[in-house]
Amino acid sequence: MRQSKNYAGIPDEFSQMEKAAVVLIPVPFDGTSTWGKGADKGPEAFLEASENMEVYDIETGTEVYRHGIYLAPPIEADEPEDLVDEVHDQVKDFIKRNKFVTLIGGEHSLSIGSIRAFNECFDDLTVLHIDAHADLRKTYDGTPYSHACAVHEASQTTNLVQVGIRSMDAIEKTYMDTERVFFAQEMATDEFWMDKVIDQLSDNVFITFDLDALDPSILPSTGTPEPGGLFWYETLDFLRQVFEEKNVVGFDIVELCPNPADRSSDFLAAKLYYKMLSYKFREDTPDGDADAGAGNAKPRPSGLASKYDEDDDY
């Protein structure tokens, strides 16, 4: 993929790895998707859209990029197992460096590696899985490293909470904890679904956000769009509450399949990423002041405590 110099075209002083609080890892991989192809072009389209985005967030009154966002080299691999291993290794390395690690895909199989790394680094981890699909298959097309298996491992090793599900195979019911699954058709008539989700979360939360969780009327450019999804402001309302009430330790956004004839999905993905960062860091910007410069930025957001905090090797 063509690599942008800096995320969102931000000045060099805010993009250096040593000083940045945030790391953004592009993962342009589309090796196991079975219908709409093109997720490997997602990170490039996301970065291009980000370069054309205003970096002042009206809601929080902040310019979160001033905390520093390092755009890491893209992770690329030929085989899904190699991709998962490489994502795991790089994410874990950046966590040990006390960075707030984020990823942009690429297909959802990358989350197997990112979740594995966060689970090894943070105690009592909840994986908040926002998606149209359950992604709970143990194997698919002969591999456990498929996009259809994205959260199977998480269902066995973490507190997995699933939101927005509206498509699944019968076999996935055998791996599903229905007490922690919020189906789209039930959410549509339950005004308290956000509170109920948050009640299921532990303190440390990793978010994996598949863009097909959103309704295709607002984001059509994804590999497997499903009717009946989330809309923009309810999504932001929910995410804002999660970031306010829990310690979000990182997140990934996956399954953008760009359409050159319609760039609105690319821009939505870019805006969603920036909003999530703005929610995470809003309390670390003094008085919500957008003019707070790099000298006021903390090395990482408060509450990002991993098992490696007291390890002198990092």
Short description:
This protein has 314 residues and is an alpha/beta fold. 28% of the residues lie in helices and 15% in strands. It is globular, with a radius of gyration of 18 Å.
Notes on the protein architecture:
The protein is an alpha/beta fold. The protein has one domain (7-293): Arginase, Chain A (3-Layer(aba) Sandwich). It has eight helices and eight strands; from the N terminus they run E-H-E-H-E-H-E-H-E-E-H-H-E-H-E-H. The protein has helices spanning 42-50, 80-96, 110-121, 152-157, 184-187, 193-199, 232-245, 264-281, and strands at residues 22-27, 69-71, 100-105, 125-130, 159-165, 181-183, 204-210, 247-254. An eight-stranded parallel β-sheet has the order 2-1-3-8-7-4-5-6, sandwiched between helices. Helix 4 links the parallel strand 4 (125-130) and strand 5 (159-165). Helix 1 (42-50) packs across helix 8 (264-281) and helix 7 runs parallel beside helix 8.
